[in-house]
Design brief:
The structure is a homohexamer of 237-residue chains. By secondary structure, chain A is of the alpha/beta class. In chain A, 29% of the residues lie in helices and 24% in strands.
Chain lengths: 237, 237, 237, 237, 237, 237
């Protein structure tokens, strides 16, 4: 496959090859997967790859508390306490001491717009090369009206598009709506049960502006994060 | 298969053969496919085929910003900065500087009628031989009422039918409603997963006024756009 | 199979044999099939068979504009510009110059009753041996209330039943409601995908007052219209 | 299988054997089947068996007009113009000249209760050994409220239960509700598609107060009505 | 399997072995099965086993009239006219001459609470060792509000729990809600169609406080009631 | 697999190995399974493991009355009458004499918030190392509004997160919502029917902060509680 120049690495071994070199900078990508598929690890690897290159990165966590995440990622060799790594803890469960402290979580259900506004404000002040929002699912679960969600999401993407940052949004597998249409690419992390065995496969479903490997490839979550075996097939019959 | 005279080429190698020569001019066709199936590439190839023949063409983009599209299509060898190629950027995310600037996107959800009116006005002033609307899905996702959507869509088709242009509308696979009934033909781009491998197949589901190849044929998105292998079968068992 | 006397030909080679001679005159039949299955061709062949015998026939088109239909059917050797062939163009898209011109299409959504009334009035004045309504689907798609649809449809059938005409109503495959119960017979046109190949099969699901061939038989849309291979099986294993 | 004394014949060859002799008199049975499965033929055979034995029988038709039915059944050798055969034409489509003439059909949708009342009144005046209501489906399709339907149906069964007549109610396959619970037995007429071939099978799903053949048996609609092959299996592998 | 002491027999041969000796006294069990699966026979066998041992038992019938039931069960050798066998006829169809006569059935839909109150009152006055409610389905079908049903059902179970009786509640297979959670055990009667043959299998899905046979075992409804073949497998391949 | 230090044992043989040593203390885990899968046994084993080590534990029962549970667990060798074992009986059916006596169950449907508040109050006063809530399903079944449920559940988790206790929440298999996202791990107990045989398998779906065995492993409910065979495969082909 021809490697298109100007792409940036995902930080995930093997996946860059599937993408013909990496992601196109300045665009927004969707990473889909069920619970335990490795979405958070994906997001962190993507950001830490930027940190390694001296980029300023932003991580918005909506599911796992930032404190827990720092602890979990240390085991995979990722030190999130890096000056270039910026985190926003937008999880509903933990007690906030900074940005989202106070009244916010008493009205979590009505706060999608508020949250996206807060992120946009932060993003407009500082300059980031990479942004990850992990996962979008939580926001959707707390919004009553599908149409309202779409409108707010569109406004959110619009704000992100002005930043020039490459953005990775993670989401649950079941989400199959406006997110897939409005992002420049969709990567799926799948868990397949076959004969009592669990197989993990990664697949590029959509990648605007570039050819890509259309096959499902096996991947593993190792002690060094996600590894994609881009020259192998998922099933060997 | 007998080639019916007076048809026009789709610009897609192999597909014209499936259609017994091409599309019937002056009618509206539906191209269906999931994310990453190549709907946008299809629409662009269809329009650029007209440009090559000196036709005036119109592209209405609802998903991918026009700026990004111009950049992506250059890699496939299509130069959209051609005087005969006219684009309307109706994507919800990008900042507009021309036609749809201003209040519009603040009320995207209620704006289907407004958008269709705008397109009709543009189309009535200038004369186009080919029109592509890519994709219809975005409009549907932002409309609350199914019945209201149908009424507006009918009015939209009615306006298009007076133009004399050949129209290609792209849409998501899941759409299975009034669009399939009111268009003169339906072409499906499919992605089939078999044993961990991804196969791509194209199929003419409906083609009024002409016989057509009823089989599913393999296709690929190559460096020159979509290519259909109309003499091959999708499965070789 | 014993041929029951007094039946009339469908005009479709092979299908009459499946029906033990043809349709029972004066009754209403439902022809079901997806987009591209050949419902319109079926309806036209049924009517032109009557024209050949000197009968007065009526075609009500709800999907394809009458002008386009005349053009398309000429290629199959059917000349709709015959004095015995009467058409009502009730499509929502085309500009009407006669019967349904004017205010009607601005309120298409609420117009099922209005349309059926118009057809009934026409039918009560003139005398037809054969009537085709193609397809019913469009009417259903523009009606808000299922129950209201049923009531209007019942009133419509009631009016038709007084005419003495043999009526063919076409409909989408997904329709599985009051139409199947209140008509004297149901014929299905199916498209089956098997191993990347497309097979077309025709099946008589219900035929009151007569025995019939209960098997699915292959059919093709040829240059002379639909042909049914009533002595063959759909699958050869 | 032991034949329980005091049962009455269904009039259908082979089915009596499946039921260990026939139906238990004075109870209500449900016969389910899709369009074209033979529900009407079943109901008529059941009633004509009574007529042959000198019983007074009542047929309530809700789908096929009585006039058409008389004509259709003559071909199967059943003469419905017998003094012991009483019919109520409750079809929505035909013009009534007797019982249900007039205002009734203008309000068909709200008339379930009215219809059941009319049937009950007729039934209470005259004495019937066998009653068939064919099919219940039509009533359900015209009722807005599921709960209301259940209440009216319960009142209807209650009235029937006082008559001492054996009652057969036919219904669509999809009905899977209160009718199956409140009747003494359920017989299903099935159409199975296997490899492009159509197989017909009959099955006793429930038969209170008697053992029964639990297997699916093949049946055919012959020139003499339904015939059940109670010693054969549906599939021969 | 170790037999836990203090259990009571279900009265069904083979099932006691599956349950490691029988049911735990004083608890409530759910028996699920479709129409014709033998739920009523199960309930009666369970009660008559108590009668044989000199226990006072109560049967609440909601589907089959008590009169018919007495007649049907006599054929299986069960004499329900035993002084220890108490019945409440709560069927909606039959004319009541005792407990539930009068206004009740005119408002069947709103009467769940009324019925449960009546049963509770009866149960609180007299002392029963075994109680069967057959089937619960009827109650659910006549209740509008799922949440209201749950509340009333909880209150009902609460009253039953004070009695000290062992209770069997029968229910339709589709019921998969609060009943499965709040009862001490769930037994399923299944009908499996395989290759045109009908197989009957019984399965203990849940049995609190005891180990149990987790396999599906074949059963038959014989002239002596239900028999379970607890040492056999349902499928022999 | 590398054992991560500082984990705590689940008390279930074989499962600790699947989890690379056990659960991470101070986090909340979800155990999913259908009726009879062993969720309660899992919760009790988890708590009794703590009791063995001198920890203070809390069990909140929402389905099985505490009295019955004590009796059932004694048979598995677990003595719940231990001073370190604290129970809250929040079942809707039993008569309360302590905490939740009185008005509560008259309004069970509206009491999720009340219940969670009561648990939180208890938990805040006393100090527990392990908490089990068994099962969450009951709470969900009695809540009208999905969104309201999510908000209350988030508040509940937030309170639990401040305790420092390791929490196990059990839930029905069908639950596939916010619980899976907001907990640190998901363990599924599955019942698979294959050829009339029942197989039990356990699977770690998600386990934040640690690698884990991704395969489904067989388990059994023995006389000593749940046992996991972590070196075996569920299917042997």
């Amino acid at each position: 496959m021809i490697r298109i120049m100007g792409k940036i690495s995902t930080g995930i071994r093997g996946l860059d090859e599937m993408l013909g070199g990496g992601l196109i900078p300045g665009r927004t990508y969707l990473v889909k997967g069920g619970p335990g598929a490795g979405k958070t690890t994906f997001a962190i690897q993507f950001l830490m790859e930027g940190v390694k290159k001296g980029e300023n990165v932003l991580y918005v966590t909506l599911e796992e508390p930032l404190v827990t995440l720092v602890e979990d990622m240390r085991k995979l060799g990722f030190d999130l306490n890096h000056p270039k790594f910026n985190g926003i803890d937008a999880t509903p469960v933990t007690e906030k001491t900074h940005l989202f402290a106070g009244a916010f979580y008493e009205e979590f259900g009505e706060s999608f717009e508020r949250l996206t506004t807060a992120i946009r404000e932060k993003v407009e002040v500082e300059k980031y090369q990479r942004v990850a929002i992990d996962p979008l699912t939580m926001l959707k679960l707390t919004v009553k009206n599908e149409l309202e969600y779409r409108k707010t999401f569109i406004g959110f993407l619009k704000a992100l598009s002005k930043l020039g940052a490459t953005v990775v949004i993670t989401s649950d597998l079941r989400t199959s709506d406006i997110e897939e249409y409005l992002t420049s690419g969709v990567i799926e992390l799948r868990t397949i049960e076959a004969g009592g065995k669990i197989l993990r496969g990664i697949m590029v479903k959509k990648f605007r502006g570039s050819p890509f490997d259309e096959q499902i490839r096996p991947y593993r979550i190792t002690d060094n994060g996600i590894e994609v075996y881009h020259t192998e097939s998922l099933f060997v019959e």
